């Protein structure tokens, strides 16, 4: 007869596998969603962007450059390529490809911006105000992934600076300028880029009992902490994006704010993790051609008002991570909004126009 201890052990193991493991994976590794994305083959759903304006940050990146081509081949009127690197070569390539295909060539603007500084972000707003009549689609695709810690000139860890703070600041500075072209039947849409990388970073995103939450996220060290910085920065950005969407709704503004998850791909951004076992295994689990991830981003930035506040993923919407849905996550979201506002108003006072627009005085 089996020992009662053995039976108890077997029972505990069955309970763990049946209930505990799925809950653990849902918290830190959304494998079902990643596996679905691996085989997903989305394409842009909007047939024509004639007469509209689209702005892409990170336009030289694997996703951004492909998204730019998708907008261009679908008759976009004005295409803005913004990146820390000069996008002139990309502009020439797109123009050449369109001419060879016998397609109309849009007006393509190249803006070189430094997202390591708030002044670089302010340049985006200044150029948009001066050079654009309408702004239908904003895709904030700029991002960095680094396993060695550096600080920006603003004093923030550089992943937090670029992926979160600078991206959030650009969104607020552009918010008063979002305006649909006459040919656009939908409200203007601004899309953030999110990532499954925030799931494994979740255990490191607790709010401190005292002191600044953002500074805690920024004051990390090399090693495991720095390895989580990309996910942590994307977690902060998703908190911000959800709060911004809620405040746009409360203010009654006819603007669509959402996030889009392109899935994983091997790109110049992620290649830094190829030599590391865990990043390599995680990326290989769901990696697909960047073309499909770019299509997700284009569709996200083209979403109708029903996509407001949602996370766009292939042709579906995804749930927010479990830790963000809890009361503690809701409190963290409010704290992120508060501390971010304090930083922006101190260093980029123009942002007050966006807070006034939201009725957040």
TrEMBL record:
List the keywords (alphabetical): Membrane, Oxidoreductase, Transmembrane, Transmembrane helix
Database matches in SUPFAM superfamilies: NAD(P)-binding Rossmann-fold domains
**Domain of life from the UniProt record:** Eukaryota
* Pfam families attached to this UniProt entry: adh_short
Q: Name one GO molecular function term.
A: oxidoreductase activity
- Chain ranges passing through the membrane: 6-29
Keyword presence, Isomerase: no
Question: What is the name of the protein in this document?
Answer: Uncharacterized protein
The scientific name of the source species is Rhypophila decipiens
